[in-house]
Write a structure and sequence with these properties.
3 helices; Nucleotidyltransferase, domain 5; alpha/beta; single chain
């Protein structure tokens, strides 16, 4: 009878190339998403204060509208003429469907006569969920 030769253990391994690719894709994703998140808050504003706050619906697809101290309206990080705000809001509402939500960041010095038309245009565009960015007391 022949004695079997000692076998080498089978080399078990996976290709590292696909794992490295996934890691690089994750890094790129987080870099881009953090850049877009910071772009939303780049407009320097002094927000109004509020004594009570509620939590936002995290499942909603939020669009942020900024109204700065010069009463310029920024939609998604770009300045938009007052006559074109509803068009941009409607495009987002159509794209997001029922998940569409609007976050209004208005400077404390902006009068309501500037904020009111933006809210009206949001209602006409189909937004059902609107929130205002504030700072707690």
């Amino acid at each position: 009878m022949r004695i079997p030769a000692t076998r080498r253990p089978a080399i078990v391994g996976g290709g590292m190339t696909s794992m490295v690719d996934v890691v690089f894709l994750l890094i790129i994703f987080f870099l881009v998403s953090s850049h877009l998140a910071r772009r939303d808050h780049r407009v320097p504003l002094v927000l109004p204060t509020a004594s009570a706050q509620t939590t936002s619906n995290s499942a909603a697809d939020w669009l942020t509208v900024h109204i700065d101290a010069d009463q310029q309206v920024h939609v998604g990080g770009t300045i938009v003429e007052p006559g074109r705000v509803e068009e941009r809001l409607r495009a987002h509402a159509t794209r997001s469907g029922d998940a569409a939500a609007l976050r209004v960041r208005a400077d404390v010095s902006v009068p309501y006569r500037v904020v009111g038309p933006v809210l009206r245009q949001a209602a006409l565009a189909g937004f059902e969920q609107v929130s205002f960015a504030t700072v707690s007391d």
